[in-house]
Amino acid sequence: IGVPFKHRGQLIGFVMLMKPIGQFATDREVSEVLRTVGRQAASYLAEHEAAQALVDARLLQEYSKRFAFVVHDIKNLSSQLALVVSNARRHGNDPEFLLDAWKTIENSVDRMTVLLSQLRDRRNSTDLPTDVAAIVRDLVRHHPAGERIRLSCSDTETWVRIDSERLRSALTHLIDNALEASDSIGQ
Hints:
Layout: E1 2-7, E2 10-16, H1 28-91, H2 95-120, E3 128-131, H3 132-142, E4 159-162, H4 164-186
Antiparallel strand pairs: 1-2, 3-4
Helix pairs in contact: 1-2, 3-4
């Protein structure tokens, strides 16, 4: 006997039952029970498929967000390094430029290392108390275009519970985007 698994008028599977060992009459009542069992099994299967589709959609959305974040980080790092290369043609013999270029390259390598470790470590990082003002001052001090950035920040500590690397990355994006926008406005 074949028992169809129908859900919303669509056949999503079936089960085949072997012939019983003993005598067994398949009357209307047995057929109705088998149909009911088939519909119930079909609803469980459909619910499982819907739940799996939802999980897959969430995973894809999370992957897309992470990928966009990684691409944005790489773009900003590439822009910083391109700026160093461009300025090296003009200022390659200036010791002050060389020191600043090494700091920029070192900072880029550090940020790429952090980015790679974040990609390897898929667990959520813990949000620890972080001095936001210190991070902002450090970003401006080590940014390749730091001399173009005017910072008005008190010397007091400003502590919040946040992932410091994600904050650093977000603020770096903000600074880079602001500098790009000011360049395009000034041209």
